[in-house]
Design brief:
54% of the residues lie in helices and 17% in strands. The chain contains 6 helices and 5 strands; from the N terminus they run H-H-H-H-H-E-E-E-E-E-H. Helix 3 crosses helix 5.
């Protein structure tokens, strides 16, 4: 599995989808399963699509299932409130592109993988945790992935069921912001995206 990110015209046109909430009839499990279906489709068509094609395919799916604006705020942490509105908007866009590029690059092939939903748990604050497994072939251990949903959209992903992706991001971003504020973080996100998309 690989890595990536881009500034294509088609991706720009897809950005309005980031504000579109999933259909009200969908429950948290259906939101996650819808994303998994799009991910598997991109994986199955990986050779034909290439990393940029997977990116374009995943952008609307992630925009619907994930609250990427909220994820940006959470990953940045307390410094967010000190940034200008323009910096916040630029960081949200850059974080979105990097997040989609990361999935496009990481899930770069298909050899019979499937996703299985293990259960849904309601947290006391109203958030919902959807526990899933990526089932791999060839005797490989399955990968446990848990999705935290708020208002029926993903706001964090727990790798191996316990490692918060956004907590890891915040740890990284704190150092970058200390080095050079919003501009330093923005430049790094753009650099990573370019590297992932080749």
């Amino acid at each position: 599995m690989g890595r990536a990110m881009s500034t294509t015209r088609r991706a720009l046109l897809a950005l309005p989808l980031l504000t579109a909430a999933p259909a009200l009839a969908q429950g948290p499990a259906e939101v996650v399963e819808g994303f998994h279906n799009a991910l598997l489709d991109a994986m199955r068509n990986s050779p034909r699509l290439g990393v940029r094609g997977r990116y374009d395919r995943l952008m609307p799916a992630m925009g619907q299932a994930f609250d990427l604006a909220a994820m940006t705020r959470i990953a940045v942490g307390p410094p967010w409130t000190g940034f200008t509105a323009a910096d916040q908007a630029a960081l949200t866009e850059a974080f979105t592109r990097w997040s989609v590029a990361t999935y496009a690059a990481r899930f770069d092939g298909f050899s019979g993988e499937t996703f299985a939903t293990q259960g849904v748990q309601a947290n006391p604050n109203g958030d919902m945790l959807v526990r899933t497994m990526l089932i791999r072939t060839g005797g490989q251990e399955p990968v446990v992935l848990s999705y935290l949903l708020r208002n029926n959209r993903v706001v964090d992903v727990y790798l191996t069921g316990t490692i918060s992706e956004l907590a890891s991001r915040r740890s990284e971003f704190t150092g970058l912001i200390r080095e050079g504020g919003a501009a330093r973080l923005l430049a790094e996100l753009q650099r990573r995206t370019t590297a992932l998309l080749g």
